[in-house]
Design a protein that fits this description.
Largest sheet: 15 strands, mixed
Distance between the termini: 80 Å
Strand content: 15-25%
Radius of gyration: 28 Å
Structural class: alpha/beta
Helix content: 25-40%
Number of helices: 17
Number of strands: 15
Shape: elongated
Length: about 475
């Protein structure tokens, strides 16, 4: 009875719309379609038309979106339009403001109408269901000064799960004071971008956050306390020499580590020239961290699910734990591989998957021998799946094909000889070559039979070769 009444109600609501002839679908289906629209311009026009016809349900689709951000501060005109839209049915529309609210400011603060700023603070105060907030510290301090109720609304924000803040040095002291008064018990994802970033910005939330993203050149770890709940750590734009030696002590329960965009301009990926003093500094850092691991009083990681970082950072960390997935980004030179890759891999207890790319400016017999020796010295026998990518330039295509295939086969023979006799699996490898830039990608994996390998990888790759005996169709060097 209720469902029948609901169906009649839905049809009635649709038939009362301004363009009755355009809507012939079930009401719930139309609501679902609104939520699936992308925020691209052509879809946005269609979405606005549908939302206008469906009224209240359309408002919810616009404000409570599963993807994309609401950015009122793109321009003064955008802020005025957003405030007018929300004020048209205030405060009912505020309840639907749930998803990512982006308060990144794109113009000087004085360019925005004071009346619109005040209206916006009222909207946020009456929007208790916001789950993700992107803040600009300058704007937050200005709005909190304009309307104290705006800041007081964050004294209890039980719905907020993600917080991203862009810091400005001049507003940092005020922002720290405000954050100390926040109460956001559900906050788990925290990102800070800018300078400076210190413990005072972390302290109000360190007992709840599980994902922490820090982006900036000036990161001061000296006064930090252990963040025992953080399982995913992202460090961005941090110079490699500023990475603390006691990272496992600060994040003892870490599962995933991403370190990228490190300042490494001195290492040219094409020439591979590394200054001697840089090599020496990295070796000293590697030695210090190995010494820390051997010290039983220092916290160390026993296992990590994922590591994604620059080769020099991984070498400096001197990891001795087991790793499920190791991704070395960006590409590195053969000289870096000789200096750092071997020790980085051999120090780890075990890795299920390793992905990396080596850039070789010119391929010669000597280069081939060096590459083969690097692969053998790394002792990849502890690895379940190896995914190296080797790029060559300015060389003859036929010679490269011959050299690379034979080199990889010799490496696989090494794997086969060193595999445990009790392990029934065998090493298999496959290769794919890009004709445009002579880039060879390889995947080497332990499998029990050919079908296991082909089901997962075979369709996208040009050749699959298993260990000995040597296939007759491989060209000799």
């Amino acid at each position: 009875m209720d469902s029948a009444h609901s169906a009649v109600h839905n049809k009635t609501e649709l038939h009362n719309g301004p363009n009755d002839h355009t809507w012939r679908l079930n009401f719930d289906t139309l609501v679902y379609m609104m939520n699936e629209f992308d925020m691209r311009q052509k879809d946005l026009v269609a979405l606005m038309s549908m939302c206008h016809s469906l009224r209240r349900a359309g408002v919810r689709a616009l404000l409570d979106r599963h993807a994309g951000s609401i950015q009122p501060f793109l321009s003064p005109a955008c802020l005025s339009s957003f405030c007018a839209f929300m004020e048209a049915d205030f405060p009912s529309r505020c309840a639907h403001l749930r998803r990512r609210l982006d308060l990144t400011i794109f113009r000087p603060i004085d360019a925005y109408n004071p009346g619109d700023l005040n209206s916006f603070t009222r909207i946020v105060v009456n929007s208790p269901n916001i789950t993700c907030l992107i803040l600009d510290s300058v704007l937050y301090v200005r709005l909190a000064t304009l309307n104290p109720e705006f800041h007081r609304s964050f004294h209890s924000r039980s719905s907020l799960q993600s917080l991203w803040i862009t810091m400005d040095e001049n507003s940092t002291p005020d922002m720290i004071t405000y954050l100390r008064e926040w109460s956001v018990p559900a906050l788990s994802d925290y990102e800070i971008m800018g300078e400076p970033i210190n413990w005072q910005l972390i302290e109000p939330f360190y007992s709840t956050i599980s994902s922490l993203h820090l982006q900036g050149l000036a990161l001061d770890f000296s006064q930090w306390r252990p963040c025992e709940h953080v399982t995913h750590l992202i460090l961005q734009d941090l110079p490699w020499f500023a990475l603390p030696d006691h990272l496992p002590c600060l994040f003892p329960n870490l599962e995933s580590l991403d370190i990228f965009d490190t300042d490494w301009s001195e290492d040219d990926a094409m020439t591979g020239v590394i200054p001697d003093h840089i090599v020496q500094d990295l070796r000293e850092k590697h030695t210090r961290n190995l010494r820390n691991v051997q010290n039983s009083t220092v916290t160390t990681w026993s296992h990590l699910q994922t590591i994604r970082a620059d080769l020099h950072v991984i070498y400096g960390l001197a990891l001795t734990c087991s790793v499920d997935q190791l991704v070395i980004e960006p590409q590195f030179s053969l000289e870096s591989a000789r200096h750092f890759l071997v020790d980085s891999i051999r120090s780890m207890r075990a890795t299920k998957s390793i992905t990396f790319e080596i850039q070789v400016p010119e391929l010669t017999i000597n280069t081939l021998m060096e590459l083969r020796q690097v692969f053998v010295d790394c002792d990849f026998t502890k690895t379940e799946c190896l995914k190296p990518e080797i790029s060559f330039i300015h060389v003859n295509h036929t010679r490269v094909h011959s050299f690379v295939v034979n080199m990889m086969f010799e490496v696989m023979q090494y794997f086969q000889r060193t595999s445990s006799s009790q392990d029934s699996r065998v090493w298999a490898w496959m290769w794919r070559q890009n004709d445009e830039d002579l880039r060879y990608q390889f995947v080497c994996k332990r499998v029990r039979d050919a079908s296991e390998f082909e089901e997962e990888w075979g369709d996208d790759w040009s050749d699959i070769i298993f260990s000995a005996p040597l296939p007759s169709d491989i060209p000799s060097s």
